[in-house]
Amino acid sequence: MSDATMKQKSGLSRRSMFFIVLTAILFAIPLIPGVPVYWITLLDNIGLAALVAIGLILLTGVGGMTSFGQATFCGFAAYTTAVLCAYHGFSPWISLFVAVAVTLVAAVILGIITVPLSGHYLPLGTLAWGIAIFYLFSKLDFLGRNDGITPVPPISIAGYQFFDSRSIFYVIWIFVIIAVLTTTNLLDSRTGRAIRALRGASGAAESFGVDTTRTKLVVFVYAAMLAAISGWLYAHVQRAVNPTPFGVGASIEYLFMAVAGGTGHPAAAIFGAAFVTLLKEILTRLLPFLFGGQAHYEEVVFGIVLVLILQKSRLGLWPLVEKLLPQPADPFIDRKAEALPVRTRPEPGSKILDLDTVRKQFQGLVAVNDVSFSIKAGEIVGLIGPNGAGKSTTFNLVTGTLPLTSGKIEFRGEPIHGLSPRQIAQRGIGRTFQHVKVLADMSVLDNVALGAHLRGSAGVASASLRLDRAEEARILAEAARQIERVGLGEHMHKQAGSLALGQLRILEIARALCLDPTLLLLDEPAAGLRHFEKQQLSELLRQLRSEGMTVLLVEHDMGFVMNLTDHIVVLDFGTKIAEGSPAVVSKHPAVIQAYLGADA
Ligand code: ADP
Ligand code: MG
Description:
Blueprint lengths: L1 H8 L4 H15 L8 H26 L7 H19 L3 H23 L6 H19 L16 E2 L2 E2 L3 H23 L2 H11 L1 H6 L4 H27 L9 H14 L6 H24 L5 H16 L5 H7 L26 E12 L2 E12 L3 E5 L6 H8 L7 E6 L2 E2 L5 H6 L2 E3 L12 H6 L10 H5 L4 H17 L15 H14 L4 E5 L7 H16 L3 E5 L3 H7 L2 E6 L2 E6 L1 H6 L1 H11 L1
Parallel strand pairs: 5-10, 5-11, 8-9, 9-10
Antiparallel strand pairs: 1-2, 3-4, 3-6, 6-7, 11-12
The chain binds adenosine-5'-diphosphate and magnesium ion.
């Protein structure tokens, strides 16, 4: 880690240097004498497609939302700029803002309709409006029907017109580089962690205050914005628009590019776009030569090659590229960053949580049967009972993950039943899950930092432009502090997926602590831990209690529970059968019968 810190402090990482050199080589290509215009035109097309594919990597690859409608967003922008510049004499740069704004409005409306759809309904939804809007493009009179709009003026700066492939190359690729940088920045931020959590851990993200529906919409609109810029460029590069490039066929091709590139990095979109564009180009030239005739065999071969790639490497081409790159530097943790604000602690001994005849029924099954108990601030309370007793369900009711059938829950004197997990997290209840919910391919540090989501406020714009660094430093420092506190310091920069199950449970505690909770709900935190690790966990929970934390924990290890807790509530078949100090509960006949009896 000290090595990484050094690298960060001495300026750019080796990886950044590598990217800069690669960009410099790319930007030199049009300057090399004798490079055919045809090559430059191919590179222009790759850049235009890469812009769309970068958005799809974020939307589909990272966020898990498949869209068959990205070409539609290119179309909105291309037609807007064509109408404004060809018919009304607008400058392309002014029409860029209008085109992006029109696409933004369209994306928000289409997003609000389609993004909440789950599973395969989402791609089907995008397919539906993709087809419908393509039909509009080709039927509306003022958009020129199938003939489209022509001529569209070229982009110009201070009188210089970007007419030819060589000059437009730089305009296109500057946009591509900016898009890669802003998207990379975005992923490496508070909002980025929320986006990355959408696919694998959206339930956990909600419990830490992420508005997943809104985050999905934000990603959807962001991807549409990149498609809009590509569409705007396209109109001025081609100097004409017609419906063909904005249909579902084109959308599918963009999707191929994103998938072929891989989800590892926004720059993978460039490789995906290059691969698909070049493959199509080669096949279109080679196949008629091999088979003769006019038949479009290239579509068939193209399909076969793509299926083979997906078979071979589900992660796309990026892992192959990544092997050649220097390892990314570990994120720098600024130990001197100002601590995040903390919430006021409740008065020790005051009632912090109160369950009043709480009931949860799943159809005929009463999982939690009119249970009442309360917890005082500064206590460690055990919630025990045989498997299926309703312990996890009780947790889910308190944290808002499940709605109550009836009853009341108060937290710090305020009713919280009926609130969303987000609103409950906001009030200071942190939790872990019986079935761990972490992102295996995200670092331990980032997983834990997700817990501090509500303690920051940086959004997409500030993250993309790196204006969030002061806040991000505070969040990462807090996450690092909690990771070290629970004893996972040496694993901080590893992928969470490389940790043992027991360690992941501890990781979840660190994540919950990052919320700055006043009440911590731990569902079987010691399961899978070795004896020594359990002792460490006990020690940690005692330490937290001494600092004023209140803990409600579910645990099967009776030694662990009896030694640690101040108070125990026992459930059996959803009903509270006993409650009291560990000494009282362990001698309670009903408990021995229902629970300890089974062990004895
Ligand atoms: P515990 O955590 O004490 O082992 P749970 O709270 O997970 O028990 O489950 C209590 C009962 O509720 C079990 O019978 C379980 O099968 C049932 N149950 C839990 N969640 C659901 C659900 N989402 N739908 C239907 N039944 C459920
Ligand atoms: Mg359970």
